[in-house]
Amino acid sequence: SVRVGEVVLPAGQVEMVATAKDAEGRGYVRALMHRCHELSNARGHVLQVMIGIPNFYRQFGYSYSIPMHPWATVTSGTKSPGGYTVTTATTDDMATCHALQEQHQTQFDVAMPHSDDCWGWILTHTSSNQALVRDPAGNPAGLARVYADDGSVDMGEITASTPEATDALLAHALG
Q: pLDDT-derived band of residue 6, with 50, 70 and 90 as boundaries?
């Protein structure tokens, strides 16, 4: 769902569409996108959310409506503040993750909170992990999705209550 002000709109989101290299050019992606749109329509979705390859999805009728956040390059050296702990969130932490996301999305006019199904996938998927920060008192203070591969680290969906929680997330990811 996408929240615009106080209105919640049912939405679909297609993710990770791909074709094997030796199967390209046969219309599989087009057929897959068509099927996804049929399913989304049957579920009553009134809009689609797409984050992906720049300009690629325009051929399927998508257009840009909200600019993506700018990327930042961070180098190692960020120190984790004393007393903050970072662990990998599990499905047992789903309510905590949802609450942190909700707490920080309330300040925006347009927000897209994760459903329980989405949280379940994020918390069990093996290509990334959800870093959960707790302050010295043990309270949840931050969250970020971390993907590390081939010597580089990507962080997304970052939410932090304090600068110290942000530093703890960065130090964890870069470590």
A: very high
Are 140 and 133 in contact by the 8 Å Cβ rule? The answer is yes
Burial, 5: exposed, middle or buried (Cβ in 10 Å; 0-12, 13-18, 19+)?
exposed
Contacts of 80 (CB under 8 A, 6+ apart): 86, 167, 168, 171, 172
| Cα(38)–Cα(155) distance, integer angstroms | 32
pTM for this predicted structure: 0.77
What single string gives the DSSP state of each residue in the chain? Answer: -EEETTEEE-EEE-------GGGTTSSHHHHHHHHHHHHHHHTT-SEEE---STTGGGGGT----SPPPPP----S-PPPPTT-EEEE--GGGHHHHHHHHHHHHTTSSEE-PPPHHHHHHHHH-SS-EEEEEE-TTS-EEEEEEEEEETTEEEEEEEEESSHHHHHHHHHHHH-
Residue type, 171: A
**pLDDT digits over 22-60, tens only?**
999 999 999 999 999 999 999 999 998 887 777 788 888
Residues counted in the chain? 175
Q: Looking at 58-62, 131-135, 158-162, which range is the least confident one?
A: 58-62
